[in-house]
Design goal:
Layout (H helix, E strand, L loop, with lengths): L4 E3 L12 E6 L2 E2 L3 E3 L5 E2 L1 H13 L2 E6 L5 H6 L5 E2 L7 H4 L2 E3 L7 E7 L13 E5 L3 H7 L5 E5 L2 H9 L5 E5 H10 L3 E8 L8 E3 L4 H16 L2 H8 L4
Parallel strand pairs: 1-6, 2-6, 2-7, 10-11, 10-12
Antiparallel strand pairs: 3-4, 4-5, 8-14, 9-12, 9-13
């Protein structure tokens, strides 16, 4: 791909230096990160980290890892950053440091059209979620809910369509994209997700300097219109 962006396999342990930032993404989460028709990484996060890398003068390599494996890969040193529509939560802060938030969303509850499921009768229902997400944690807090995790949101959506689950709980920015593509589904409830928004994660206590540089770059990209232009491209405004 372009000078500041490359897709490579996860391999030997990497240490962040002045030139390279190894970023983990779960590329099954459009419009934030996905593999496009040309078999290349695409999405809001992909273009934003490229813009950030130019601002701070580092090369970025992208590593496609399942979402629930991102923080373990970070802690093991296989990558040195995670940017994958990851919400900054108190629980995650126990093991990682986050940059400032760059995007905020909510928890979206989706059902099949014509269903009688509503916010008052969720108890005992099967709720499809993506493994390792804030939404999985939120579903587990619903009294009587039977949580059915999938490796990705598409799996949860397909489970809803064929009746394996009654509800899908998903990040709203992702959920609305699936609703546009599936006229047989609809939202019925939206709630705060309890996080500070999507942020870039680093191993705890190890990358204070680079976090400061990224925070400054985010401010500059928002001020000069680059951030909004990328968001508009992926229908995230």
């Amino acid at each position: 791909m372009r000078k500041f962006l490359a897709l490579v396999a996860v391999g030997l342990l990497g240490v962040l230096n002045a030139q390279t930032l190894k970023v983990g993404m779960s590329m099954d989460y459009p419009p934030f990160e996905f593999i496009n028709d040309q078999a290349k990484p695409s999405g809001f996060d992909v273009e934003l980290i490229e813009a950030i890398s130019k601002k701070i003068g580092v090369e970025v390599t992208l590593h496609n890892i399942s979402f629930d494996g991102l923080i373990p890969a970070l802690k093991a040193g296989k990558i040195n950053a995670v940017m994958s529509a990851m919400s900054a939560t108190d629980d995650r802060r126990k093991s990682v440091d986050f940059t400032d938030s760059y995007y905020a969303t909510e928890n979206l509850f989706i059902r099949k059209k014509g269903s009688d499921i509503n916010e008052n009768n969720i108890k005992g229902k099967k709720i499809g979620v993506q493994l390792g997400t804030v939404q999985e944690a939120a579903a587990n807090m619903i009294e009587g809910a039977k949580v059915v995790p999938s490796d990705n949101i598409l799996g949860a959506i397909m489970g809803l369509k064929v009746g394996k689950v009654d509800i899908v709980l998903v990040d709203s920015s992702i959920g609305y994209g699936y609703l546009k593509q599936n006229s047989d589904l609809e939202e019925f409830l939206k709630l705060p997700d309890g996080s500070e928004g999507f942020s870039i994660a680093f191993d705890k206590g190890k990358q204070t300097e680079i976090i400061g540089k990224i925070n400054k770059a985010l401010e500059e990209l928002k001020a000069d219109g680059t951030f909004d232009a990328i968001a508009k491209k992926y229908d995230l405004q």
